[in-house]
Design brief:
Blueprint (H helix, E strand, L loop, with lengths): L2 H4 L6 H18 L3 E2 L15 E2 L7 H14 L1 H19 L2 H13 L6 H15 L10 H10 L4 H17 L5 H11 L7 H29 L18 H24 L3 H18 L3 H15 L1 H19 L3 H13 L3 H15 L6 H18 L4 H14 L8 H9 L4 H29 L2
């Protein structure tokens, strides 16, 4: 056997996620099936109603069917990914984004690297507001182009957009999808503990920004110019008034979406609709014409096929676990374990459990609906405040989104940048481990301060 034949080849991201689906199906035959009853008229679990049910392990055919069911369940975000990927490709093909970033970097000269921390802070704020969760996928092409112009790499491009946004989302003092839902379920005043959570957001933002910028600087200093290997690094078209109009349309569209998301609770459908108008306007003012618009749109949508498959398969894991009726059993096991722990360990273990449970239920609002009806009353029994329980859920749900492959948005973001999962996971792992240690410290402080 040749050396090349023996050499291990790391599996494709689709293979990794499908293997995890198989493991999930195996778990449905091992973990006892069980269920909580729901509070009448709500989607909330009644913590006093857990009961075992007949084992309903997922069959091989059920596993195969879960692929299709995952695609259907993730339909909205998959369609969003195709549409927004296509619309952004129109703007990229117009050269407006590339020309503007090239002009900006030229004008700033030696200070151009200040763009990175500025973008990181902006994306973190947008992530904390809840505006840039799933829609962050649409910003990845801009991040990659900006990173390239600054002499950095694709990882930097993904990090300044996705990682910054999800770091803000994970530690948000106000996010409606996590904090507000969890507080409402727990019977707490809306946005209570705001000051403490603002401190937590800043506590995580600073090392995250330093981690990203340090990597970008190291890449910039060490890497040689790769213009010959990167067709996108070809000479840029000079920035002109048409490009400016296209980008003004983009800025106006994003501004309208941010306003609508915060004031009117707009979802991804509005983002997709606004981006269509922005892309059509950009194609018109830059002279691409309708044929150019359609060609660029189809190119961008075609590039999203891999991302869409990843999102659907990742969602299929939760479908398998739900069909096997073991999610509630996992929650019940956690409740029993916490009830026997020493008071000082309860809050950190709550966080760790939510961190791991997010692998199975990566949706913030979905995890809140499943976990908080149990954790809120349980926190009363184990002498931890409900506010601390909400914080444990929030950090556990949010931080793991940057590394767990079941998060479809992360997989779509790295795929859009042309990164494989192994490369991204290996790079982000040190930061994720640091975040985990920091979160345990935050939980200890929360308990000590009587949050």
């Amino acid at each position: 056997m040749t050396a090349n034949a023996k050499k291990f080849s790391f599996p494709n991201s689709l293979v990794i996620v499908f293997v995890m689906m198989i493991l999930a199906a195996v778990l449905t035959h091992i973990i006892p099936a069980g269920s909580y009853d729901y509070v009448p008229g709500t989607k909330l679990l009644d913590p006093a109603t857990y009961h075992g049910i007949p084992q309903q392990g997922v069959s091989p055919w059920g596993l195969v069917d879960a692929v299709f069911a995952g695609m259907v369940k993730a339909g909205p975000i998959i369609v969003f990914t195709f549409l927004v990927g296509g619309y952004f490709q129109v703007l990229i093909s117009s050269n407006a984004v590339d020309a503007f970033i090239h002009r900006l970097v030229e004008r700033l000269g030696s200070h151009s690297f200040l763009i990175l921390p500025s973008i990181i802070v902006i994306m973190s704020v947008l992530g904390a507001s809840g505006v840039m969760a799933n829609p962050v996928v649409a910003t990845i092409p801009i991040g990659v182009i900006l990173a390239r112009r600054l002499g950095a790499d694709k990882i930097t491009g993904v990090a300044i957009m996705f990682l910054a946004a999800y770091g803000g989302y994970a530690t948000s003092p106000v996010c409606a999808m996590t904090v507000q839902i969890a507080q409402q379920i727990s019977g707490l005043p809306m946005l209570s503990g705001f000051g403490f959570r603002c401190g937590v957001w800043l506590f995580f933002l600073i090392p995250t920004a330093l981690f990203i910028v340090r990597h970008a600087r190291r890449v910039r200093l060490a890497a040689e110019t790769k213009k010959n290997d990167d067709p996108s690094a070809a000479e840029t078209v000079p920035f002109n008034a048409r490009h400016a109009l296209a980008l003004l349309g983009l800025a106006a569209g994003l501004g309208v979406y941010v306003w609508g998301s915060l004031s009117l609770h707009w979802g991804m459908n509005y983002m997709a609709g606004i981006m269509m108008l922005v892309a059509m306007f950009g194609a018109m003012v830059t002279g691409m014409g309708m044929n150019g618009f359609v060609t660029a749109f189809l190119q961008g949508a075609r590039q999203m096929t891999f991302s869409a498959m990843l999102i659907g398969l990742a969602t299929g894991i939760s479908v398998v676990l739900s069909e096997g009726h073991i999610l509630h059993s996992i929650i019940y096991g956690m409740a029993v374990a916490l009830n026997g722990l020493h008071h000082a360990l309860v809050a950190p273990v709550m966080f760790i459990f939510n961190l791991l449970f997010n692998f199975f239920v990566p949706s913030g609002s979905g995890q809140a609906a499943v976990v908080m009806p149990i954790m809120a009353p349980l926190s009363d029994v184990v002498h931890v405040s409900r506010q601390t329980a909400v914080l444990a859920f929030q950090l556990g749900d949010g931080l793991s989104n940057v590394i767990f492959p079941t998060n479809g948005t992360m997989m779509a973001s790295i795929a859009m940048a042309g990164l494989d999962y192994r490369t991204w996971a290996r790079w982000v792992l040190p930061l994720f481990l640091l975040w985990t240690v920091m979160a345990v410290l935050v939980m200890a402080v929360a308990v000590a301060s009587g949050l």
